[in-house]
Amino acid sequence: MKDYWQNYIDGAWVDGGAGRIDVINPGTGEKLAQHALADAADVDRAVLAARRVHLSGELSDLRPVERGRMVQAMGRFLLENIDDIAPVLTLEQGKPLWESRIEVEGAARYFEYYGNQAETVEGRSIPLGAGYFDFTTYEPFGVSAQIIPWNYPLEMTARSLSAALATGNTVVIKTPELTPLTNAWFAHAAEAVGLPKGAVNILCGLGHEAGAALSAHPQVNQIVFTGSVQTGIAIASAAAKNVVPCVLELGGKSAAIVHDDADLAAFENDVRWGIYFNAGQVCSAMSRVIAHDSIHDELVERIVGVAQSLKVGPGIEQPEFGPTMGAMVSDAQRDRAVGMITAAVSEGAKIATGGHKMNIPGAFLEPTVLTDVTPNMNIANEEVFGPVLSVLKFNTDAQAIEIANGTPYGLVGGVFTNDLNRATQAARQIRAGQVFVNEWYAGGVETPFGGYGRSGYGREKGREALWNYVQTKNVAIKLKG
Ligand code: NAD
After folding, report:
1. Where are the domains of the chain?
2. 151-164: per-residue pLDDT in tens?
3. Which CATH class is domain 4-250?
4. Out of 31, 217, 305, 322, which residue is the most buried by the measure of CB atoms under 10 Å away?
């Protein structure tokens, strides 16, 4: 592990104008490394480098298949270096080593997918009668600013970086303060595949300093953000002042409705992945289960069984896929989750299992299940962003939908039933950008993802995401009579 990691601006590794930040290993609570901290001047240099490359046409003028091949090669580069990247991700973020490997593979998959899509972005010709020839083209916006959260630093960067490059944009990435290290491999990948200097810039900086400077920069042409609602509002406001579009992915309080005819044994797997993967620090986590009265008690017993089966400890000691969970990203995030559990109990919720921080060094929280949660409680409405599942009850289908839709969020939702009519009705009625039927997280890089309501706007993943990175130009040609 290197002691000190630099920013990557205009093809060079550089110190930060704001000094350095300590990166803590949440699995031990100890200092892991230092990272350069960018200030507004560093951001300015990165944006101007990206703008220079954009205006040069070095990327945007390429035949798309050539760009696509470079993007795909970046994904292969990540896979070739997985043995180096995965341990660093575990040490900076806390997740089990096997989860880090899944994240590296997931990041590589974005480059494979969007590399493939590069040559599919085609315009159309519009008939205007014999006197004209008219066609549309899709052009890149220019400089894409991408502000990344700490929960999936590799996958979140890969998601937006791959699509932006595939469509011919240049990029400035602001990495998260808590988990900035692994993003360095995107710079190595950009160099390895021969992208021009300045096409990809990666810097860490404080949100209110470098993040704010980036989102307000007048030469940024498009912004992608994943993180909290509050920061999303600040970024969208900055984007509005420069009249540039942004994509916001702001988390959720997503619910699984479990009917009396659902396969409860199979649902255990959905609990495992839905709320305990990445210690619940997932924007689309299954943080609420809305259980039919008649199966509630059996379901809770099964869910508690899943929570109690998990071995919790430092992620670096968990190389093999299995029933394990790592640390949360920081003591502060863990303590915030504990505070929300305590408040829920004072409102009448019961702890079925877990609920406490663990008495070992590091940011560990017991896998937690809360029952007797009612829709009006804070815990039923606010994102915990931790391994904390709230179980609520329902009687009628209409009631289940009302509870599911009862928060300001709308990222994803799920319905578990053997009844096709019930499932399709619920899929229509759930106010969320993505609905899972009988498997939480069904789908993949190919399927569009994004929020209703305060979960944000714009779509990531799938072909839909490509349209975030291009603008339509219409060319109408008057022909000689
Ligand atoms: P955050 O929204 O503050 O941070 C996300 C990113 O935005 C970071 O890179 C940060 O530096 C940057 N940022 C912060 N303030 C900024 C500003 N004014 N201008 C521009 N960029 C800025 O999130 P957080 O503080 O790390 O976490 C707080 C809560 O957000 C979590 O508890 C969780 O509920 C939620 N969250 C959601 C996701 C998600 O995937 N939806 C990810 C991380 C956090």
Report:
1. 4-250, 254-444
2. 999 999 999 999 99
3. alpha beta
4. 217
**Rounded average pLDDT over 86-93:** 98
Q: Which of 92, 177, 204, 283 is catalytic?
A: 283
Q: Which pLDDT does position 325 carry in this prediction? A: 98
Sign of CA dihedral 153, 156, 161, 162: positive
- pLDDT tens readout for residues 323-343: 999 999 999 999 999 999 999
Q: Is the dihedral of CA 291, 295, 297, 303 positive or negative?
A: negative
Percent of all residues in the chain with a pLDDT value above 70, rounded to a whole number: 100
What is the pLDDT, as a whole number, of residue 425?
A: 98
**4-250 and 254-444 have identical folds:** no
204 is catalytic: no
Evaluate whether 386 touches 283 at the Cβ level (below 8 Å). Answer: no
Tell me if residue 246 is catalytic.
no
CB atoms within 10 A of CB 131: 10
3-state SS, one letter per residue, for 354-421: CCCECCCCCCCECCEEEECCCCCCHHHCCCCCCCEEEEEEECCHHHHHHHHCCCCCCCEEEEECCCHH
Distance 382 CA to ligand 1 centre (A): 15
228 CA → ligand 1 middle, Å? 5
Angle between helices 82-93 and 153-166 (to 10 degrees): 130
Confidence of residue 481 (pLDDT cuts 50, 70, 90): confident
Give the chain's length: 481
Asked if 395 and 295 touch (Cβ cutoff 8 Å), the reply is no
Q: What is the pLDDT of residues 7-65, one digit of tens each?
A: 999 999 999 999 999 999 999 999 999 999 999 999 999 999 999 999 999 999 999 99
Closest CA to ligand 1's atom 30: 228
pLDDT digit string, tens, across residues 405-437: 999 999 999 999 999 999 999 999 999 999 999
Ligand 1 atom having least distance to the Cα of 205: 11
In order, the DSSP letters of 272-287 are HHHHHGGGG--TT-EE
Query: Which residue in 167, 232, 159 sits closest to 447, CA to CA?
Result: 159
> CATH second-level architecture of 254-444?
3-Layer(aba) Sandwich (3.40)
**For residues 296 and 286, what is the distance between their CA atoms, to the nearest angstrom?**
17
Taking the CA of residue 140 as centre, how many other CA atoms within 13 Å lie in the half-sphere pointing to its CB?
A: 28
| 352 CB near ligand 1 (under 6 Å) | no
Measure 233 CA to ligand 1 centroid, in angstroms: 11
Report DSSP state, residue 294. Answer: G
- Kindly give the distance from the C-alpha atom of residue 107 to the centroid of ligand 1, in angstroms, as a whole number: 20
